[in-house]
Amino acid sequence: MSGYDLDAGDAPPVPLPEVAPSRIARWRDSDLLASFLGSKTAMAALLATVLMVGLAVAAPLVSPQNPYDPAQLDLINSNLPPIWQADGQAPFYLGTDDQGRDVLSAVLYGLRLSLIVGVLGVITSGVLGIALGLVAGYAGGALDTLIMRIADVQLTFPAILIALVVDGVARASFGGALDVGPLIGLIVISIGLSFWVQYARTVRSSVMVEKGKDYVQAARLIGLTPPVILVRHVLPNVTGPVFVIATINLALAIITEATLSFLGTGLPETMPSLGTLIRTGNRFLFSGEWWIVAFPGLALAGLVIAINLLGDWLRDALNPKLQ
Amino acid sequence: MSRSTLKILARGVAAGAVATVALAALPAQAANVFRFAFQGDLKSLDPYSLKESFTEGMQQAAYESLVTLDKNLKFAPGLAESWETPEPTRWRFHLRKNVKFHDGTPFTADDVIFSAQRVRASGSNFTTNVPADADFVKVDDYTVDMVLKKPNPIAIAQFPTWLIMSKAWAEKNGAAQPTPPNATSPSYATLHENGTGPFVVAEHQPGVKTVFKKFDGYWGKVESNLDEAVLTTIANPATRVAALLSGEVDWIDPVPLQDQSRVNASGTAIVMAGPELRTIFLGMDQDRDELKDSSVKGKNPFKDIKVREAFYLAIDEDTIAKRVMRGQAVPSALMIAPSLYDRGAEFKRPATDLKKAKELMAEAGYPDGFALTMDCPNDRYVNDEAICQAVVSMLARINVKVNLNAQPKAKYFAKVLAPAYDTSFYLLGWTPSSLDSHNILYEIVGCRKPGDKSGRGSWNLAGYCDPKIDAIADKVEAETNKSKRDALIKDGFDVLNADWSYIPLHQQALAWGVSKKVHLTQRADNLLLLYWVSKDPQ
Amino acid sequence: MLAFLLRRVMQAAAVLAVVGLIAFSMFRFAGDPVNQIVGPDTPASERAEIRRSLGLDDPVLVQFARYAGDVVRGRLGISYQFRQPVSQLLAERMPATLELAFCATVFALVVGVLMGVYCALRRESWLAGLFQAVSLIGISLPTFLIGILLIYLFSVTLGWLPSYGRGDTVRLGWWTTGFLTWSGLKALILPSITLGLFQMTLIMRLVRAEMLEVLRTDYIRFARARGLSTRAVNLRHALKNTLVPVITIAGLQLGSVIAFSIITETVFQWPGMGLLFVQAVQNVDIPIMSAYLLLVALIFVTINLVVDILYTVVDPRLRLSSARTA
Fold it and tell me: N or C: which end of chain C has fewer CB within 10 A?
């Protein structure tokens, strides 16, 4: 479900892997690879993800049309069904929408947008969360309390609510005429603000554990400054869990963007993401023009399921307790 | 199974049992109820707060006007039994006796005089409905004179949408002014009504539902056989159609174009379609010296007539009508529907000509086009956003890069209307409420001046101004000879078209989805009037 | 113990204060409130007068204090769209949202527990595999897609269930309920499933994991050794131990369910608070947005507080280790 924070409110129902120094070893160990090769699901998921990412990257090369270039759209080609139906026409293999936009191209470009927004959103929330987690864990005291209280308040609100509010406030402040660039930035910020808490909590608890350890004390003794210690010694230990969170959050971020667009507050119809396409297509669902909603829907579902499967497998592989 | 789970289950079963018993106990529904769904909501019950067709139609179920319109849009007596013009500047109205407001107070001349003030007060959306220079004089309890400064043959043209309120009720409830500007508390009149009409608003939840009930003390005979009418808002077009087809509602508006054949094929409902009076058009800001949000700096390309012509010629309205509107629109050469102007057929829409459009752009100094922002509502007119998107594609062929800003109507109107007129290029629809060309020449294309209270050019969002038009409009207002008047109007429209001032697109089709159990009258002004709605009893 | 509770209440109040500050900032600084109130042709002098009458010229701190006072007394401002008090709008739409959230939670609990137990006891069966797959889809598919799918299947294709709205409702005082009419009950089915699916998935996964864990413990082995039947062990002992965390989670998630009904309500045009909120975002109706934000925070904080108190009452040992947050 869209943007559900897995530990919204309280105790995460699906525990995250505990952080232990042996984690790095586990990563380098071939255990991971072995477990990967042993899991057909994981391999299929990876294959699907790579395929979709590849298609998204290559979208401008493989798409019959650039769906964002209005000059390439022709109303004469509007509402064509997929090629295997009676009125289907090449090169519109999956049909066209009400503006004559090729559905296949729109899906490929939409995948691209979804991934861009998702990855940028995950990076934003990751950087924010890791930084705050490091600071909170290392500094402790009042600063720690403050950051963790903010995290608590943050957790009070599901991501989609935060994103909607950020979006609404931005619209009120800048007027409606945001260009697509700033609009994407806005969505990325909304997502970043919604998902940083998990990183912060994980990193913080890891820092708390490491802080007392001899090698950190030793590093301090030889005159290394706290930022250097944090980055060089503590950060590598949390790579595993952060990677798991990032994978799961990528799926959530993609869903959040799609939901925003579906609700009409995300990307515009002239530059549709998968969510926007589904919103448009939903209007035509009852009238038999099913392809406008079906293909974007399938693409979105496929992408999210593949990423989730990867995330699930990663989490299990890194956490022997769950097996 | 654990005890707590069992408990939860048991509770569910108990709830089900209670529900069944309650269902059985409910009385059989005998009342004849008409359920209908509209895409938007009834924002306000105050009859002077929003000039919008659907709202006006709903308010006319509860409120009445002095002069009303019959099924053919001809004047008919309403609360005024009759009227005459003893002299060109004096209109005398003889009011109906034995009319009661819903709260029981009798209707008299004082209510008319009060309503004439209120409708022209600040905050009213209907100030132009009653001439600004008119004085209302009480002759006796059932006779009112309207005294004008100069003759005006169309003085009562907009009376049918000027609804009469009760003076006593409004004053008692602090609603003597139309929606007060500093509304820190909501106006009583926006949530309650007290008209003289055949229906009473029994319940009003804005955005959810409004319930109308038959008014037993109504003075006249009502064609409708309804006991009750329930309005719900269903914004999602697909959902709206599903509700009609499943029989959950008896009437919907609008039926999305793509669903019309399905509704007709259903066997339970039909689409009632006819050309509407509303003209959809595009406006280009010709007022500012530099366009807002445009790549052209230091000058306004729309001030160059060649650019305006190029835009006009680049937009392929025939394809828009055929594909976006699925044939449910009539391309228009005029800013008014041909049915409202007898000589309308003399005008022909110039054919699309991309080559010429490109040449014109090059001549104007924009061979590589330019960029600008277009404002568009996305929940106001039939397929409004889709039309705008099609326009964006078509303009891309003459290298004009349009950034489309499509918004819900509330936000759209707040942006583009006075005083900001914050738009460079926009789509708007207009039905002259007087059903007359003068309204176009006066409100839509008349020169707008800052601080002008007369209402001239008040909807001229593009700021187009040609003094010739104003002169013609003034002559049209005073002219009583029809053929001379029509000739004057033609002159006006000729000037307008020669200036490439606006780009008229089409008259959209009215599309109501109506259950076969329901019988009603569809008028070209798109008002749903409950007193003409009947439903076969169950 | 009293000190612990007091600290919890203080924390809850602090959270509400912070959310209040955010809500106030939105209210005050996102767009010009005066523009939203007056008509476009209002002269500048009149605008200045309104600014004064609304107190917009006072120091920000004074304004915040006034805002907080108003909120406490239930005055949440006037909606720009409807020109009605926001508190009244929310009150009108609250029953719809609460009934939907309740049904979704019941659905999630009942189905989630059953599926979870089955998956734990018959780990290798094909049905358990199917349930696992369903849970993956439940967690992966966006709510709106699930809603559209259900509408297409059950409303458009089969024509069994309504696709929008609450059906007929019955008014009981200020509360409107859909539980008492046939059409009201039918209208609840699809939205409840759509909204509850994610919770169901969570609960199913949780029950499965907890059951597996519990079944491995000595306590269960001991019960088995005592000769109790497998069925009795599974249900009486294992499930019972599992249900405490499950019901806690379900309770805690109630707040999220209410907030998440935003999407479900939009898809099904359900006339609840979530739909009101989405319309408010689209129309930039800041008073409704900020009031909704406050309300959601209040619901979350209250639920968490109640859970805390219950835990402390039930099991005093928990009061120290509980790292629960408001």
Answer: N
- The order of strands in the sheet holding B80-87 is B80-87, B90-95, B143-147, B135-140
In sign, the C-alpha dihedral spanning C173, C175, C179, C182 is positive
Q: Which of C269, C275, C279, C314 should we substitute to test contact with B (largest number of B Cβ atoms within 10 Å)?
A: C269
Most confident of B5-14, B155-164, C248-257: B155-164
DSSP state of B331: E
* This prediction's pTM: 0.80
B393/A176 touch (CB, cutoff 8 Å), yes or no: no
DSSP notation for A191-207: HHHHHHHHHHHHHHHHH
CB-nearest partner of A2 from C136, C263, C281: C263
Note the ipTM here: 0.78
Between C155 and A120, residue with greater pLDDT: A120
Residue B376 has pLDDT above 90, yes or no: yes
Q: How many residues does chain C have?
A: 326
Q: What is the DSSP letter of B462?
A: T
Put simply, the chain A residues between 280 and 319 with a CB less than 8 A from any chain B CB are 282-289
Residue matched to tokens 């014109």: B360
**Chain A contact for B414, CB < 8 A?**
no
Q: Quick one: what percent of chain B has pLDDT higher than 70?
A: 92
Q: Does B12 touch chain C (CB under 8 A)?
A: yes
Q: Which residue has the tokens 């599901």?
A: A158
Question: What residue of B is the nearest CA neighbor of A280?
Answer: B386
Distance from CA of A75 to the nearest CA of B (A): 6
Closest CA to C245 of B312, B47, A10: A10
Contacts of B44 in chain C (CB under 8 A): 83
Give me the total of CB pairs closer than 8 Å, taking one residue from chain A and one from chain C.
Answer: 157
Q: What confidence tens digit (pLDDT) does each residue in C27-80 have?
A: 777 666 666 555 545 556 666 777 777 777 778 788 888 888 888 888 888 787
Cβ of A305 within 8 Å of Cβ of C300? The answer is: no
Q: How far apart are CA B388 and CA A73, in angstroms?
A: 13
Residues of B in contact with C78 (CB under 8 A): 183-186
Q: Give the nearest partner residue to C269 out of B181, B184, B236, using CB atoms.
A: B236
Beta bridge partners of B137: B145
Question: What is the Cα gyration radius of chain C?
Answer: 24
Chains that touch A (3 or more CB pairs under 8 A): B, C
**Burial label, C322 (beta-carbon count in 10 A; 0-12, 13-18, 19+):** middle
How does strand B80-87 pair with strand B90-95? antiparallel
